[in-house]
Protein 1
Amino acid sequence: MENLQDNVKNILMVTAFPTYGAGSGVQVTALANSYLKEGKNVAIITANNRTDFDRIPGVKYHIVPFKSEEENPQIIEGQCDFNYLMFTTHTESTANFWDASLSQIREYEQAFRKAINEEVREFKPDIIHGQHNWISTSIATETGVPVVTTIHGTDLMGFERSKEELQKIRKALKTETDPEKIKKLKEEEEKYNFYIECSNRAAINARKIIVISEAQEEKFKKLFPLAANKVELIENGYDTSKFYVDKDVNKEDVIGSLVSQNTPDGKIDLDYDKLVVFVGKFADFKGIDVMLDAAKSYEENLSKQGEKVLTLVVGSGQLEDQLKEQAKELGLKNTHFVGRKNTDEVREIQNLADVSLIPSRNEPFGLVVIEGMACGHPVIGTNAGGIPGILNINKEDISDKSKTYVTPVGVLVPMDDSQALSDAVCDVLTGKDKFDKDFIVDYTKEHYSQEGITKKILGVFDEASKGSKKNSHSVER
């Protein structure tokens, strides 16, 4: 058998999003770092609307340029005249696949095809690691280079939504008589057909498919049965050099430096007893609205017990104004929106937290779950998506989605149940539910360190590359 080091030397990562600001971007950066440590050459094709972002020394970056929504956007040569497209939202883009026109999608497709073909010729990858089963990965499978695709979850949601939208459009076409409206519907029909075709092509043509949770594996196999035999379950990992127990942090420096976006003076009262933290983008499936309702309840209940709880909401996104208005209407006095923070700032906040909340309606994996655990505290998450796979470490029966389950590393609560979430927070913060923080840290490092996860992925690359001719890189179109 060929040595893995010789068989797969050049890894080209293709992501339709920036390498920061969202879970998949963070994961791409962590993986690229770990590939370098394993002696690989790494190039990343990434969408972006600016060039001044953090880069890993030694990694080649190829930007697919888009137009920023900022007042004075950076002009990048060859940029698309719209922002990079998202499934939900991003900290620096509100553009999405659903509102994009057919002409924009064609421009988007050609921009990625140009970038991928250039890197296949110049970088000569032995493997392409595609992120999301979507347009850019479909294009990557045209090149003749073996493709391994990681499913992130929003791509599966996108595939399902495309099929639903297509049904609505075809139903509308049966009764529509206005020529202009028919033309628009036909363009929308072509767009959603294209999304579905790309997803199917990407799944069928990839050598291997990596899924990051058992729930995701089940869903992928149901949506793409012809590719079911290619699936490998490898959960996400976290960068142990970025998230760890830091005993030097203190609330005066860390919390004291934060600016509240929803108080008149921006100040945050440091006279608190317990700290609750949410970190994530402000998208509907993250369930932040449920968390705010829960905060109203647990703030009041714990106040009666003499405990003052501070809640920090870290992140940003399209729902920001709506969520801040909800917090205002609820009269939340100790819940503060503090904006998006970089990795080091998040780690410091996580190290001060007594508990992290993940109230998602559909969380494909939940990288922030293991990042919080790595910083030494339990996590309360919903019994949905990939979260149970992380928190239910003893693999107990948690099939009753209406119940709350306490595990050695956190608590699983029913989805969309603010009272259950509030009760769980109260039980954790009052010590009714007890946790061994050293155990949580050790367990997380043992099972989710990026180093261990990367070795598993490289094994998949090795398997996928077998049978491909060395340095044989064809380019179509």
Note: Residues 251-448 form a domain with the Rossmann fold fold (CATH 3.40.50.2000).
Protein 2
Amino acid sequence: MKVAVIGAGYAGMAAAVTLADHGIPVTVLEAARLPGGRARRVEAHGFALDNGLHILIGAYRETLRLIERIHPAGKRALMRLPLDWVIHRQFRLRSAALPAPWHLVVGLLQAQGISFTERLGALRFVLRMRSARFGLAGDLTVDELLDRFDQSARVRRVLWHPLCVAALNTPPRRASARVFLRVLRDTLGAGHDQCDLILARTDLSALFPEPAASYVAARGGSVRTGCRVTAIDRCDGGFSVAAEGRQDVFTHVVCALPAHQVNAFLIGISALAEVVEIVERLTYQPIYSVYLGYPRSVRLTAPMLGFDSALVHWAFDREALCGQAGVIGAVISAEGPHQQLAQDELAREVHEELQRHLGPLPAPSWTQVIAEKRATFSCTPGLARPPQRTPLRNFLLAGDYTESDYPATLEAAVRSGINAANIVLGKA
């Protein structure tokens, strides 16, 4: 058994680590010079930044397990905070250190920034969904679901809508209620530690893909970066894979490319026509990460702050996370008018927006806008996602867009990689 993994993002490296654990020779082929895919390091202005500011949560069991196992710093690579959902000067929800569901009952009843009636309404909604095991007979949008349970405009604005956009990266008017409820099931509806907020103390390539590459190499595998696959053909031994002037034969292929790159890669393989058709129907949502370099004295009041804003959704204090003094990272999730702005104009508007919320700030000495225009698929009601097993024997898909309970998150990517490896091993 000899396995090729195409793509060194979180899905591909999770597959490679799992196979390496079972003594399977694995070769990871990555076109970019750096592993990580859409969660990777970007060097700019003398800092190691990320192409997307990701939030992990306690429910990301498989992602956390792999990071803590293979990262040299183990658990110290992550900052774990009990749920403290802060929309600056508007709302605060803190999880109580109690068994489920009391952690949430007490947290919602003590939430600041909404009326007692609104707190009861939000609690009633969660408890009703919990009694229904967070399931729905049919899918609908998140806003339609919230209409059914009379959630007020303010509760939507400071709690449900930010949570929907953070988890699904899709506007609530278009987002799948069924997938949203699965997120609630595994966070607010689970134990208090499952909704902990977990922030990386390092860049996203150094957090998992790079340690994973070292882990695979130490177990007889290889990770070839800057190595673009140019052809895959069936042969007697399985698959002949051509990459950068070299051709190798593999018994199995795990294609772990992002969804928007998969079809260009698979289009010539007739056995995969049905898979191509499903992937072609996917549409995409952007994530913009805007970094601002302020004087070293500038800090936020918390490592992570939310805003009731038409532009900035979350801001991160990079000094509190990874020692980058004066660097503030702002996240703008999903589609919106900001997509029409030039990068320098967008950075200026983010700076002005932060000033409106936080008070006067000095002008940043530098800015960096990183736009992932197809960061995730649009997680809409009834969306068909391709299975990981394909009609082509021993050719598998891995990625956050494949069939899963989860939206397009790091956990969905990691789980898909682990599952693809288990299929190769005959364990799934």
Note: Residues 83-195 form one domain.
